[in-house]
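[User] I wish I could look at a protein chain and see how it folds. I have put the entry right below:
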Amino acid sequence: MWLDIFSIASAIDKVNMLAVALLMLCAVSTQALDNGLGRTPPMGWMTWERFRCNTDCKNDPYNCVSEKLVMQMADRMVEDGYKDAGYQYINIDDCWSNKQRDAQGRLQSDPVRFPSGIKALADYVHSRGLKFGIYGDYGTKTCGGYPGSLNHLELDAQTFASWGVDSLKLDGCYSNVSTMKTGYPEMTKYLNATGRPILFSCSWPDYERAFHIPINYTSVADNCNIWRNYNDIQDSWDSVTGIIKYYGDNQKTLVPVAGPGHFNDPDMLIIGNKGLNVNQSNAQMAMWAIFAAPLLMSNDLRNIQPVYRDILLNKEVIRINQDPAGKMGKKMLEFGSVEVWLRPLQYYEEWAIVFLNQDTKIQTVTLKLSQLGFSYMMGYELREILTHKEVGHVDRHQELNFTVPALGALMYYAYDSS
């Protein structure tokens, strides 16, 4: 009799423990980002690198951060083929807001540069078939000195949703970095609660890295669609290669965490500005595709040279970037100044390969595909997709010569030939 009672009590305890575990699991799941977005890396345009915090519309009306600038870029996105190629988001970065919140504590746009208001601007972007993104900051102020979201996270999430915002970049200036591991997930909760799908771009890991705080990338991936984890990109080749080096040095940490819905963000494409030549621009485009990185241009689409527009619109490279498997590539080999990067794609024996040359002279590398781990006995079809040249059928044990442009790249699409 006592055995039966103890058995029943034990069973009840197990049921209660299971119920508690399920409740805890539900509580955790409701905190995770739940917007269904970013299944492939987001593509679009952003104000920051090219236009920075230029608020001088009186003396520089053509280049100041304003609703006119954003509307013109939206027009160019549609009319010049970027939208058709997959670019979707038009994103304002810092310095869009008024210096003060309104009487209800809500953020408001600068009345001179954004006289129609952010909702009207978002409506215009939506009317062009695009999505609208905005910038905020986890701290007391943005990096440019405008109102931050600390102590206003829930209100700001609601405000952004009411404006029709589709993407939020949340920076981390003027904040206590040690609280980001709870603060960013708090914003995730509030974004979820709005019921509006808002792509969430976090700067959280970048600040923790800078302050030597261990980064919990599992939590980052649970709470963010994309995240910055290294220095801001500048308009220079040195800046691009510095980012590439960081990604190569940390690929054991970064590669496993990337996937549909959550991607590492090495920062904006600067193609079409002054800092990169054609070879270097092709290299950035290729490497960002290998990284499965967001393709967020920061340039002036109103006067970009055709050669750079063609690089940004290279549909073969974009197809690699947007591969549904969402796997990040990694550095496999080095031959002096030439690095060889490899990214697995959706289908069996389907790959993207980049040869990146950081020398000022052309370099030739001799390589067998088997050195990269290629094992398909029937061989592969190989195509160079930066210049759209067919190589043809190759055997995995065949020695191949790859002549890589100075300070540039080659990018190949390889697939089984059966």
Remarks:
- The two ends are 70 Å apart (CA to CA).
- The chain has two domains: 39-321, 330-416.
- The CA atoms of residues 38 and 261 lie 4 Å apart.
